[in-house]
Design brief:
- With 292 residues, this protein is of the alpha+beta class.
- It folds into two domains: 162 residues, Sandwich (Jelly Rolls); 68 residues, Homeodomain-like (Arc Repressor Mutant, subunit A, Orthogonal Bundle), CATH 1.10.10.
- It has a six-stranded antiparallel sheet with strand order 2-9-4-7-10-11. A three-stranded antiparallel sheet has the order 6-5-8, with no helix packed on it. A two-stranded parallel ribbon has the order 1-3.
- Strand 5 and strand 6 form a beta hairpin.
- It contains twelve helices and eleven strands.
- The protein is globular.
- The longest helix is centred in the C-terminal third of the chain and has 19 residues.
- Helix 6 crosses helix 7 and helix 7 crosses helix 8.
- Helix content is 47%, strand content 17%.
- The protein starts with a strand and ends with a helix.
Length: 292
């Protein structure tokens, strides 16, 4: 069974994602992503899968999965039952920890966690109990305090002497193989052709699905519709161009990133970033002037 690619959304101005969810939830499926993940179960019990490992979990289950390692937690609840808070999740690129270690040599030990997590790392009950309030606070906190909590959490995880590796020595995730499945091919197509003119029907053909089936599957993968997902990527690309290509007109950038209507571009930019493209560029210029 091929795992689905989960598209991890790390907000602008953030180094990692920290969030919580209930059950059922759209990401509760056999899936993978390039980012590392720390997964804490706050409620329910059930069965979990990490690579080729299968185990039983209960509240307090604390696991770190490494890059592209498939995983899933399935709670034993009635078909019509819902749980407001099932899990707290922290996701971050592997390179984030290596950059931190380069800046702060004292934290070099936490990078070893990534190597352990490539097969899935189950932390001890004592470590989980120690980290649980920290994880809860981290999910709810913003600003500089958030960065401090993250480093504190990683230090506590790295110090756990009761950590257990889950997947077998021989298990090696193959993201290139995972990416051959339907919707994942469409996601790759979007990334490679982001500024081109394409529609949902084109992506459905790429995925070998009907448009209706593709639409349902895409939303299950990403938590959003195709248009919203593509527009989000295009706006992010526009931000990079506004910051780095100062001589290029906003109108030109609009068309360069794949929008074919300036008013539509401005509306989506304002919705996502809270300011117009021109204002975004002006604020960035002020920031550059102060930094200089």
């Amino acid at each position: 069974m091929q795992p689905d690619l989960e598209v991890v959304q790390i907000g602008q101005g953030q180094s990692f994602a920290a969030w919580e969810h209930g059950y059922p939830w759209h990401t509760v499926r056999w899936h993978f992503h390039p980012e590392c993940e720390i997964h804490y179960v706050a409620a329910t019990s059930g069965r979990y899968f990490v690579g080729d490992f299968i185990g039983e979990f209960a509240p307090g289950n604390l696991v770190m999965t490494g890059p592209n390692l498939p995983h899933n937690w399935i709670s034993h609840v009635a078909a019509d039952e819902t749980v407001a808070l099932r899990s707290r999740v922290i996701q971050f690129p592997e390179t984030f920890l290596t950059r931190v270690a380069d800046l702060f040599p004292e934290t070099a030990g936490v990078t070893a966690l990534v190597e352990t997590s490539r097969r899935g790392a189950l932390f001890s009950a004592a470590c989980s109990a120690d980290c649980a309030p920290l994880i809860a606070e981290l999910v709810a906190t913003r600003g500089a305090r958030r960065a401090g909590l993250f480093l504190d959490l990683m230090a506590r995880l790295a110090a756990d002497r009761g950590v257990r590796v889950l997947a077998s020595d021989s298990y090696r995730p193959d993201p290139s193989g995972f990416m051959t499945a339907g919707v994942n091919r469409a996601l790759r197509y979007i990334n490679e052709n982001l500024t081109e003119d394409f529609g949902e029907a084109d992506l459905a053909r790429c995925a070998d699905l009907s448009v209706a089936a593709f639409s349902r599957s895409f939303r299950r993968h990403t938590g959003m519709g195709v248009v919203e997902y593509v527009n989000r990527l295009r706006i992010n690309l526009a931000c990079q161009m506004l910051m780095n290509e100062r001589d290029r007109a906003v109108t030109e950038i609009c068309y360069a990133v794949g929008f074919n209507n300036v008013s539509n571009f401005n509306r989506h930019f304002l919705k996502q970033k809270g300011v117009s493209p021109s204002r975004f560029r002006a604020l960035w210029s002020e920031n550059r002037a102060v930094a200089a």
